[in-house]
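User: Here's a structure from my thesis project, written as structure tokens. My advisor, Dr. K., wants to see whether a designed sequence matches the one we expressed. Can you design one independently, without my sequence as a hint?
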């Protein structure tokens, strides 16, 4: 595993954007596995700036997102499709027909998961998978569990996640209770994986995930078994890791 320690979130985001840019330049028709949430926003903003300068061309890129809320249409401002459009896709020359997010409106969970696994396979797998890291070690919506999930799955969101998300919705009843998420097996099949972390609050879980035992109780710990992982973080997020190596 390669570890890049940046001064702060801005510099970590720039490092992450550099790695994504290199992937696009080296393989213009690459498949990017993309993540949502606050962590990758800085990297996406940097990619947009470089695209606007003429440094990047996304016209042949395919993207496959990690997850989506079940029951939310793409037009909902809390859906992950909406997030990707408003933070990246609307500002670069990627063909939206080549951008994939789980179908949150598919009522048949088995079909939705099978279809998404088929999309990943049909594009030859993911060249570079971008991940954030949850405080409990989750990646995507793969929460601590008794076993690692292989393929795309429909997961019931934890009460803490539902409560945390309530601030984004008009009422608790509107908060999605389930989500479709790429499984650990699918993530591990990516050729390269980049994890972006930021802030002191992530310091302990970074140490547990990358220096602790490999266990489904810390889903990200499985990344220790991957042959090509890049960890990009700021000094605060990597503080406990750096103390322990």
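Assistant: Designed independently from the structure alone:
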């Amino acid at each position: 595993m390669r570890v890049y320690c940046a001064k702060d979130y801005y510099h970590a985001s720039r490092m992450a954007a550099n790695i994504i840019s290199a992937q696009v330049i080296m393989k213009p028709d690459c498949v990017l596995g993309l993540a949502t949430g606050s962590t990758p926003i800085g990297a996406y903003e940097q990619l947009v700036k470089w695209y606007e300068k003429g440094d990047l061309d996304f016209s042949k890129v395919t993207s496959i997102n990690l997850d989506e809320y079940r029951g939310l249409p793409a037009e909902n401002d809390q859906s992950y499709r909406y997030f990707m459009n408003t933070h990246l896709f609307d500002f670069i020359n990627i063909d939206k027909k080549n951008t994939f997010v789980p179908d949150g409106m598919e009522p048949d969970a088995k079909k939705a998961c099978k279809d998404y696994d088929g999309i990943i396979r049909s594009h030859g797998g993911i060249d570079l998978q971008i991940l954030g890291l949850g405080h409990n070690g989750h990646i995507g919506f793969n929460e601590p569990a008794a076993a690692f999930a292989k393929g795309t799955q429909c997961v019931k969101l934890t009460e803490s996640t539902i409560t945390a998300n309530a601030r984004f919705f008009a009422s608790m009843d509107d908060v999605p209770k389930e989500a479709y998420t790429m499984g650990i097996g699918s993530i591990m099949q990516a050729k390269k994986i980049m994890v972006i972390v930021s802030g002191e609050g992530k310091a302990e879980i970074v140490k547990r995930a990358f220096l602790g035992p490999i266990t489904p109780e810390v889903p990200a710990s499985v990344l220790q078994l991957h042959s090509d992982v890049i960890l990009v973080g700021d000094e605060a997020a990597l503080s406990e890791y750096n103390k322990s190596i």
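When you compare it with your expressed construct, this may help: The chain is about 30% helix and 15% strand.
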